[in-house]
Predict the structure.
Amino acid sequence: MIEANHLRTTRESYGRLAETYAEFARPLFEQEHLDRAAIAAFAGFVRAGGDGTVADVGCGPGHVTAHLHALGLTAFGVDLSPEMIDLARRTHPHLRFDVGSMTELDLADGALGGVLARYSIIHTPPERVPEAFAEFHRVLAPGGLLLLSFQAHDEPSAPPEPFDHQVALAYRWSPDHVVSLLRETGMVEVARLILAGREDTKRRFPQAHLLLRKSAEAQP
Ligand SMILES: C[S@@+](CC[C@H](N)C(=O)[O-])C[C@H]1O[C@@H](n2cnc3c(N)ncnc32)[C@H](O)[C@@H]1O
């Protein structure tokens, strides 16, 4: 099968900069209190829904997968970049990390209680995003939760631009547009948290955290 260009470019850029990205993201996550609040709420909903397994899709160096584990969830990470997965495995040897793409997850239908996709759809061109969303929906059990985080924009989608850590170009979307795409797959919005961007920080764009639930009713 021919691989899409954006997957190759993304894998190569994170492969070259896995350690650099980890040095950027790990300490930042320690200070991201509202992100952590959203993740804690996600964990609570997953536990209440039967405590199913959670995939951290586009897990990077695995620090958030480890955080999910520390919150008591059965969590594993998936990432496009073998170098990222290698780094995640070395840093968190007690956890499972797999190489794979969010567009083609090696998981059975309905296998998961939760999907966390934290800043990992941002390198996917807008026309390919529905593919990833359909895959999130497929692997979630009915009633399963999705927590999706990305840099927000007022327009439905915006041209790619250099991201805060400069690893690769990133896309931004409006939260409403993303929710409407997810709704088409059979997901229902539970809540959204929008953080203001701050020029004086490493998060200069507004950040959206969307919590959605896969409808428990049978899909057409
Ligand atoms: C900005 S980093 C986010 C890493 C981590 N989730 C975090 O919160 O710090 C984006 C990650 O998503 C991964 N990624 C991008 N597209 C992907 C895809 N199609 N499938 C799996 N991982 C992907 C990249 O390799 C990279 O590690």
